[in-house]
Specification:
This protein is α+β, with helices and mostly antiparallel strands. It has one domain (about 45-180): Immunoglobulin-like (Sandwich). Helices cover about 15% and strands about 35% of the residues.
């Protein structure tokens, strides 16, 4: 009789085990009602929105500088790139030399080359920082949320500029493109 009660006790104990495990697993995954998830926003801009770096009646050797501040107003880190679009005389847009530096202490004609890091130096018509293609690319700049990147732009007409460029005009638009930078 003792063996029968012992065997019955083992059977009841083993049968109750999955029920206890099942209840423990289901109670461990209860949702917490105060947890909220929201997607971050990439919000990038350039200040001033119209850069005052133009110069009329440029002669060979003339240069003009100006500051552009790229601002990440979004709540997530961003990666940005810049492209240039030139309107007007294509020959002048190709002849003008655009130089962009970050970390310049004095963004003036005389202070431009004293410090900072060169980001671009070449024809205005092909001016770029990084790549406009999605994903991380060589030269892309990153900005933490609520921060800015101060860039110094210089446009110069080289001493070797050709005579046919006289009386020509070219305008440039700098377009800043951004995407979320991975946080992991």
């Amino acid at each position: 009789m003792r063996r029968l009660w012992g065997a019955l006790l083992v059977i009841v104990s083993v049968a109750a085990l999955p029920l206890a495990v099942d209840r423990a697993a289901s109670s461990a995954f209860r949702a917490h009602p105060s947890v909220v998830f929201s997607a971050g926003v990439v919000d990038i801009g350039a200040e001033p929105s119209t850069a005052g770096i133009g110069l009329g009646n440029m002669a060979p050797g003339d240069a003009v500088t100006g500051v552009v501040r790229v601002v990440n107003r979004g709540g997530v880190p961003a990666r940005y790139a810049m492209t240039t679009s030139v309107a007007g005389d294509d020959a002048l847009g190709t002849e003008l030399v655009l130089s962009i530096r970050s970390g310049v202490t004095r963004c003036t004609r005389d202070g431009f080359l004293l410090d900072g890091v060169a980001l671009y130096d070449g024809p205005l018509a092909r001016g770029a920082i990084g790549s406009a293609a999605p994903g991380a690319d060589r030269g892309d700049r990153t900005l933490p949320s609520s921060s800015s990147d101060v860039l110094c732009f210089r446009v110069r007409l080289p001493l070797y500029a050709a005579n046919p460029l006289q009386r020509s005009d070219a305008g440039a638009s700098f377009v800043f493109l951004a995407e979320q930078a991975p946080q992991n």
